[in-house]
Amino acid sequence: MLTRGGIALLPHARACLAAAAAAVVEFEDRSGLLGGSLTLGTVGGLEGTCVPHLLGEYYRRHPGVAVNLVGASSPSLLAGVRDGSLDAAVMSAPREDLSKVIGSRVLLRDWIVAAVPAGSRSADRPMTLDEVSETPIITYGTDSGVRGFISDAFAAEGLRFDVAYATNNVALQLALVVENVGIALAPYSSPVLLASEKVTVIPLDPPISFHKVFVWRLERNLNAPLKAFLDMWAELAA
What we know:
- The chain has helices spanning 4-31, 51-61, 74-83, 129-133, 145-156, 170-178, 191-195, 224-237; strands at 37-42, 66-71, 88-92, 102-117, 127-128, 137-139, 163-166, 183-187, 199-202, 204-205, 208-217.
- It is α/β, with parallel strands linked by helices and 238 residues long.
- The chain has 2 domains: 4-108 and 212-237, Periplasmic binding protein-like II (D-Maltodextrin-Binding Protein, domain 2, 3-Layer(aba) Sandwich); 110-210, 3-Layer(aba) Sandwich (D-Maltodextrin-Binding Protein, domain 2).
- It is elongated and about 55 Å long.
- The termini are far apart.
């Protein structure tokens, strides 16, 4: 229990701690020895993108920053950026416009493709959504940002979108395809999709495209680790 004197001094103590923390950040910034932490949210399937290279380069430049990677679905990641529990996130761009308080940069453009058992069909001819709708569909759950793009594409063609098996784990989707459960609809950039010899990847007609983006909360004073990451990205993308 704090005494009355302690309670009276508490605001001053907090102010001193805040000033000390700010002084440490300023010293690290001026000396080039950046510290602190960076919490990044990530969707799955980023192994084959530039994200590992960006994180590797960030480590080489700022080894004193502790980077925490948090995996979740795109809607959950966006909510985390908005409420401040995440500094930034790599996710599927939402179908609606991002709010004015969220900044974004495009990481890559991706496409949804169909995965069927190897040898069951040639990859030379695209598969129509009408054909897909006639088979059991294996794809993402309703908590995934990607699923909305797929369901919208089927609706635009006047087709029902009935999912037989839903999982956000692409490797499990493909395992179900190998077991002849149905056709998987997954992003072309997924490393496990491109590496599997047990499935054939077929483009869709019409194509279903979406973007993966890097998002962060726009604030007047970004924390130093996030600002350093954004500056590095801008430099490498130039």
